[in-house]
Amino acid sequence: xxxFDVIVLGAGAAGLFCAATAGxxxxxxxxxxxxxxxxxxxxxxxxxxxxxxxxHTAPDRFLSVNPHFAKSAxxxxxxxxxxxxVEAHQIAWHEKTLGQLFCDGSARQVVDLLLAECAKGxxxxxxxxxxxxxxxxxxxxxxxxxxAPALVIATGGPSxxxxxxxxxxxxLARQFGLKVxxxxxxxxxxxxxxxxxxxxxxxxxxxxxxxxxGKTKFREAALFTHRGLSGPAILQVSSYWKRGDEVGIxxxxxxxxxxxxAAKRTQPRKAxxxxxxxxxxxxxxxxxxxxxGLAGDLGNMSDKALASAEARLADWRFRPNGSEGFAxxxxxAGGISTAELSSQSMExxxxxxxxxxGEAVDVTGWxxxxxxxxxxxxxxxxxxxx
Length: 386
Ligand code: FDA
Description:
There is one protein chain. With about 375 residues, the chain is α+β, with helices and mostly antiparallel strands. It folds into 2 domains: about 1-185 and about 330-385, FAD/NAD(P)-binding domain (3-Layer(bba) Sandwich), CATH 3.50.50; about 190-325, Elongation Factor Tu (Ef-tu), domain 3. It has helices spanning about 15-25, 40-45, 70-75, 80-90, 110-120, 170-175, 230-240, 260-265, 270-275, 280-290, 305-315, 370-385, and strands spanning about 1-5, 5-10, 30-35, 50-55, 60-65, 95, 100-105, 125, 135, 140-145, 145-150, 150-155, 180-185, 190, 205-215, 215-225, 230, 245-250, 315-320, 320-325, 330-335, 355, 365. The strands form 6 sheets. Strands 19-18-15-16-17-14-20 form a 7-stranded antiparallel sheet. A hairpin with a 4-residue loop joins strand 6 and strand 7. Helix 1 runs parallel beside helix 5 and helix 1 (about 15-25) runs parallel beside helix 12. The site of dihydroflavine-adenine dinucleotide has 37 residues, from helix 1, helix 2 and helix 12. Dihydroflavine-adenine dinucleotide binds next to helix 1, helix 2 and helix 12.
């Protein structure tokens, strides 16, 4: 039985950064993962370029039963702090859009950064090995032939099981008597059925829209797929969407009030399809004109019909019949309840020495680098406390 100060379970973004932080503070750290390769989600993230943080990180860009929980860790480790580390490792980066920072080269550079930081802290690894049963006795956590007075749960959530994702974090939480907020797929494509099924014919068509779930709105691209709706705007609202809810789409978020009546006056001989085809892709324009039942020229349509068409285009209601689930979800919302953890250290209040960080915890970021920033910030908070 080999003894350590800390065992970190999970060699993903949060686990590696926590291990490096604790190791560099002189702790003897062991990282365990059942995958034989570390950071598999990092490697495929951001289309292979890793959107490693977002400059606009703020607590209101995270979902949690307790929206205040993430504030402390996020304030103590900011996007600029991680960026400084990226630059210290001479990784070239760029801002793509909306504060999203990506590597110019490859996501592999972020994994190499984390491994180099772990090496500085003399972190040991056991990869390709299941954790097996975990026992807590005499103030020590015993697992996989090792023991330590501190155990960090950094095994993420169950989204994308083929990458090695599992629900181990929740099993451990239950084993140690910690509450779990029901996990659900987030940042996930939504599926359409019923009357909306006709929109699936538009598979491959994308448009810049404003999508809405409840009161939360996102202005980004939406994409029609053979199963329903995707694209950044839809992934964003999916985190707020609940089964049975509608999703509203404003297909023309830049149009001025009364634009369709104005178009009737200036272009009475123009067909609705052609008017919509100016700002929107042709196939989408045709589908919307058909579903509005307004196929002819604007001049032949009543003002009332045009006013109601304008209102509908600004808030087109879809009622998704589900989502593509954990198999396709970029993250898992829900997880180990923040009520069980210290927001300063991520340590479980009831079980001294047990910590939970990253996606395993009920803190879920928007699309765009926010989830990695939470992984870094929560890992840092735990690493500094260990
Ligand atoms: P993470 O999932 O990274 O790591 C968990 C580790 O635990 C894994 O190594 C896993 O093998 C291990 N593990 C799990 N179960 C285990 C078990 N039973 N026994 C032993 N080990 C176990 N975010 C972002 O901010 N920017 C981006 O560009 C992207 N892009 C992106 C693309 C895709 C396709 C996905 C699926 C996700 C993203 N994300 C993202 C989200 C981001 O990848 C995610 O939020 C972080 O990786 C979470 O970090 P964690 O370390 O908490 O979990």
